[in-house]
Write a structure and sequence with these properties.
The complex is a heterodimer of chains A (348) and B (362). Chain A is α/β, with parallel strands linked by helices and 348 residues long. In chain A, 32% of the residues lie in helices and 23% in strands. Chain B has a single domain, classed as Orthogonal Bundle (ABC transporter involved in vitamin B12 uptake, BtuC). Chain B is globular and about 65 Å long. Chain B starts with 17 loop residues before the first helix and ends in a 7-residue tail after the last helix. By secondary structure, chain B is mostly helical. Chain B is 73% helix and 0% strand. The chains are: A alpha/beta (348), B mainly alpha (362).
Chain lengths: 348, 362
């Protein structure tokens, strides 16, 4: 189902030489990032990634029209954002923020119905079309069964989906979400990103979100906007950014080492003994991680210490060989680590 | 977590709650009617209920001038005042709670009540003591135009200050703090004044702070009704912006709301309501804070298109009921209305709040 959408005639959002930051009275404005050149196309999910303090929230707020840019050109739906009336802007772009909704008595349906605000008359009455849009938004996010419940009683994962439904009900080509995965557990984070990915495809919307879930974002995003703490914003498919080294460079300042081979950040910086790891498949992958955690440096090249993983998961056992000793057999990784550590201490 | 489905689900019942809400509003209206008739019927002079009803419907015995006078000149204006006070304070409290997203906000949050108090203190504690004391004794506390004008001027001055500051302040929390500080400073000035005043003058001022519904008659009542009516109309026109503001300013702005314009409209409405009511009847506590909570609990909705009329009705019914109690049925004693609303109101709010399981403090 994940066909690349055909390029549309015009981007839904376009920015040229956009500088963002905070204008101060009397003092010089504080520049957070820029100049930026950005575009969002229909049908794509874009993840905005970057270390803390790079200006992700400032950028999202600026694009959403909540905060004025310091300079440059910013257009939504082909028209300069500043020239749009608040109502017209609200029909182009909807947002999901990190701030909590503090309206305990508000039901899910009432909350989602508020998304129809820019489409209703002065009293806010809902037409049959509005009701249908609300229902469709509830259905698309799988929240229809919560409709009569008060928002205050929802779990974090449910609330995030309901807030997304509210944005969908606003019926805008663009949806911007500020860290939608922040308070969710892993299954909910995966489900939300999968949902956003599907919505971008099926409803032909441009969805932009900021997140700290780097590994999930690398999997879900059609394109990544990479905003390093210093330097230029880089945009492109996540794979290109990883292979070009841009991804690793962006997070280097936080003392993180990005492993291009696995697409993960290395938690451990082992400096211990080099261990030759023989074998492949899932068993090799997980054995490698165990060795890293225990402080060994797994390597493919020959070394004095050697570990052979079982050829098939669930069958056979691990073999370890210390220099000048017979090979030992281990039924589990736990045993393997125990033996390696013991031998290692004996040698020392 | 249920699997995500993008195919439209079978339609569920779309608005099952609306009929219940309509019934709730009708019941509230009936309650107001009952409280209104009861308020007119009760008083130091015993008048049979049937006679009262006949007089209210214009079918009264014309020869019974004493009863006609009591009903038309004293009790009817007082009940109408209670109606205006209850609905106005409740609606202004609801607006403040939503605008500031603070459950403890009320009509006094912007310092309007304190401003009115300052105006009254100005008249009472300087110069006009004897004149106002006479007026108070003859016409009840609110009977003096001087007091009404002074209170209105005080409330209007504070309103102008808050509106001017609101145009500069972007954050509603900052605005709330501004309102509270204005109230605090105004209260301090009144205290200072009291400190340097003669005891009998202070007593007059204290009497005003007890609040009174009686004495707003004739042209006073017409003015109060007009201003409160205008304030209520403005509030109803703010129903949609208030709904958007439930989500906070950022979401409201993203929904296309012109936040500052809506805020000015809401502050104007509240100022007219709270300012005029305080000017005519003195500060009346609790109604503005409690009725919005009661209304939300009763109707079970956060939609201001229903909450505003609901608060209007419930506020009116409550102040009418408090006024009935204030006359201590069967006695000649009249309790100050401010005391009754607080004595009756605070426990009611406690009951409503503690009755439900405490969920997500929001």
């Amino acid at each position: 189902m994940s066909l690349i959408p055909p390029p549309a005639a015009a981007p839904l959002l376009a920015a040229e030489n956009l500088t963002i930051g905070y204008a101060a009275r009397k003092k010089a404005p504080r520049l957070v990032a820029g100049p930026l050149h950005l575009a969002l196309w229909p049908g794509e999910l874009v993840c905005l990634l970057g270390p803390n303090g790079a200006g992700k929230s400032t950028l999202l707020r600026t694009l959403a029209g909540v905060q004025a840019p310091l300079g440059g050109y910013l257009a939504v739906g082909g028209q300069p954002l500043a020239s749009l009336s608040p109502e017209a802007r609200a029909r182009q772009l909807s947002i999901v923020l990190t701030e909590r909704i503090e309206a305990g008595h508000l039901t899910v349906r009432e909350l989602v119905s508020l998304g129809r605000h820019p489409h209703t008359g002065w009293l806010g009455g809902l037409s049959a079309h509005d009701h249908a849009q609300v229902q469709a938004a509830l259905a698309a996010t799988g929240t229809a069964q919560f409709a009569p419940r008060p928002v205050g009683e929802l779990s974090d994962g449910e609330r995030q989906k309901v807030l997304l439904a509210r944005a969908l009900a606003q019926d805008t080509p663009l949806i911007v979400l500020d860290e939608p995965t922040a308070h969710l557990d892993l299954p909910n984070r995966v489900a939300l990103l999968r949902l956003l990915h599907e919505l971008a495809r099926t409803l032909d919307k441009a969805i932009l979100l900021s997140t700290h879930e780097l590994d999930l974002a690398l999997q879900a995003a059609d394109r990544v906007w990479l905003l390093p703490a210093t330097g230029e914003l880089l945009a492109g498919p996540p794979e290109d950014l990883v292979l070009s080294g841009a991804f690793a460079a962006a997070f280097q300042h936080e003392g993180l080492a990005f492993d291009v081979a696995t697409g993960t950040f290395e938690l451990h910086a082992p400096t211990g003994l080099a261990v030759q790891l023989l074998g492949e498949g899932p068993a090799a992958f997980w054995t490698r991680r165990a060795l890293l955690r225990a402080g060994f440096v797994p390597t493919a090249s020959p070394a004095a210490w050697r570990v052979t993983v079982p050829p098939e998961v669930g069958h056979g056992s691990w073999l370890s060989q210390a220099p000048g000793q017979p090979a030992q057999e281990h039924a589990t990784i736990a045993n393997l680590l125990q033996a390696l550590t013991k031998n290692c201490n004996n040698v020392a | 977590m249920s699997p995500v489905s993008l195919t439209p689900s079978p339609p569920v019942a779309v608005t099952p709650r609306r009929p219940r809400l309509a019934t709730g509003l009708l019941l509230l209206a009936a309650l107001v009617l009952v409280a209104f008739v009861l308020d007119v019927a009760l008083g130091p002079v015993r008048i049979p209920m049937l006679t009262v009803a006949r007089h209210l419907l214009g079918l009264g015995d014309a020869a019974d001038t004493a009863t006609a006078f009591i009903v038309h000149q004293i009790r009817l204006p007082k009940a109408l005042t209670a109606l205006a006070v209850g609905s106005g304070l409740a609606v202004s409290g609801l607006q403040m709670q939503t605008l500031f997203r603070n459950p403890l906000a009320g009509p006094s949050a912007l310092g309007l009540t304190a401003g009115a108090g300052l105006g009254v203190a100005l008249v009472m504690l300087t110069g006009g003591g004897a004149a106002s004391a006479l007026a108070v004794r003859q016409l009840g506390l609110a009977g003096s135009w001087a007091l009404v004008l002074a209170a209105t001027a005080g409330a209007a001055a504070v309103m102008a200050l808050v509106l001017a500051l609101a145009a500069r302040v972007r954050d509603n929390v900052v605005l709330l703090i501004v309102g509270l500080m204005v109230a605090s400073v105004t209260g301090a000035i009144v205290s200072l004044w009291q400190y340097f005043s003669a005891p009998e003058q202070i007593q007059e001022y204290l009497l005003w702070t007890f609040g009174a519904l009686g004495g707003v008659t004739g042209s006073h009542l017409a003015v109060l009704a007009t201003v409160v009516g205008t304030g209520l109309a403005l509030a109803l026109a703010s129903a949609k912006p208030l709904n958007a503001l439930l989500l906070g300013e950022h979401y409201a702005r993203s929904l296309g709301l012109r936040v500052r314009r809506s805020r000015t409209l809401i502050i104007l409405s509240t100022s007219l309501l709270a300012g005029s009511i305080t000017a005519f009847c003195g500060p009346i506590g609790f109604v503005g804070i409690a009725v919005p909570h009661l209304t939300r609990a009763l109707l079970g909705t956060a939609d201001h298109r229903l909450l505003l009329p609901g608060a209007c009705l419930l506020g009116a019914a409550l102040v009418l009921a408090c006024d009935c109690l204030a006359q201590l049925p069967g006695s000649q004693i009249m309790l100050p209305i401010n005391v009754v609303t607080s004595l009756l109101g605070a426990p009611v709010v406690l009951w409503v709040v503690l009755r439900r399981p405490i969920r997500s403090a929001a």
